[in-house]
Amino acid sequence: MKLKVLILIFPMMINFSSIAQTPEELNTKGKEYYYADNYTKAVECYRQAAEQGYAEAQYALGICYDNGNGVAQNYTEAVKWYLKAAEQGHAAAQCNLGKCYADGEGVAQNYTEAIKWYLKAAEQGDATAQYNLGICYANGEGVVQDYTKAVKWYLKAAEQGDAKAQYNLGGCYDEGEGVAQDYTEAVKWYLKAAEQGLDFAQHNLGNCYANGAGVAQNYTEAVKWWRKAAEQGDVYAQCNLGNCYADGEGVAQNYTEAIKWYLKAAEQGDAPAQYNLGNCYANGEGVVQDYTEAVKWWRKSAEQGYASAQYNLGLCYYYGDGVVENYTEAVKWIREAAKQGQAKAVDALKVLGEKSK
User: Which of 9, 11, 30, 179 could connect to 45 by a Cys-Cys bridge, CB 3.0–4.6 Å?
Assistant: First the structure.
């Protein structure tokens, strides 16, 4: 009898993750994991590529440490990997390394080092680095303050579409810093930034239309841009939009809408909005007349040094509107307003026979 030989075939278990991949392939896989929000796997791939000296992966690993994606946030490790990539000429890594030095994250704050790395990146055309370099020149951080050089770098970044650089460049033309004052140019750059959704630029563009600076005065356009900024939470635009509704400029007069926008700004601590909201309560505009509420908002504004609110609060104490009558408090607040040259307060002290100091 012939014996049958049984041949057992064991399937080969292949660990595909162990198959050798090039640094470029690992980096590409890392990106796929990163954009799928699988940060842990992304870090694994980036690290393998980074340890082989692949600059793009070193930069990406630095970002993961910077933001705490897939690893515990660690600015020191972020700097380590940014530096490795930066030394290979990676522009974005150079820019981020400069930011670490500027902010003192992962390294001791050092604006000179920040400038060094920003410049390397900026000269390669990195728009963020160009913008950051402009900020350093405008503020005199790591370099002698020089608005002309600030404008130079803002312009380079702005021409690449960097919204913040466009806004700052508009500001330079608006104020005549580093360039001849030119409201038309200011509007041009504010508009570019505003169309990208930058709230500061939308607010300033609204100001230009309201004041007729660089464009024909047009409150409807002012309201349009202030609204865009206000809806993003810009406190000054919210107050300005409230004023437009209160005065019927660019929109139909509507005190209810005015109150809505004043309140949004006032709750963020804006003193003029708090003052205006107090006025609405005192006059019963858009709300039921309520001196207690008026006093509440005037006090918030007055405590920030807003002279008109200080004067009104003083009057409330003098007449006992919304508070218990208190001559000492009345004089105190009217005097604070008078110190700032508030005309009504100065006159009131004279009538009361009180000194301004």
Answer: 30
Distance CA 314, CA 177 (A): 41
| pTM for the predicted model, two decimal places | 0.88
Q: Domains plus CATH for the chain?
A: 270-357 (1.25.40.10)
Q: Low-confidence residues of the chain, pLDDT below 50? A: 1-18
Three-state secondary structure readout of the chain: CCCCCCCCCCCCCCCHHHCCCCHHHHHHHHHHHHHCCCHHHHHHHHHHHHCCCCHHHHHHHHHHHHHCCCCCCCHHHHHHHHHHHHCCCCHHHHHHHHHHHHHCCCCCCCHHHHHHHHHHHHCCCCHHHHHHHHHHHHHCCCCCCCHHHHHHHHHHHHCCCCHHHHHHHHHHHHHCCCCCCCHHHHHHHHHHHHHCCCHHHHHHHHHHHHHCCCCCCCHHHHHHHHHHHHCCCCHHHHHHHHHHHHHCCCCCCCHHHHHHHHHHHHCCCCHHHHHHHHHHHHHCCCCCCCHHHHHHHHHHHHCCCCHHHHHHHHHHHHHCCCCCCCHHHHHHHHHHHHHCCCHHHHHHHHHHCCCCC
- The tens digit of pLDDT for each residue in 302-345 reads 999 999 999 999 999 999 999 999 999 999 999 999 999 999 99
- 283 to each of 103, 290, 293, 332, 350, how far by Cα in Å? 48, 8, 11, 24, 26
* 278: Cα separation from own chain's centroid: 28
Residue 344 pLDDT = 95
Q: What is the pLDDT of residue 277?
A: 98
Number of neighbours of residue 215 by Cβ within 10 angstroms:
18
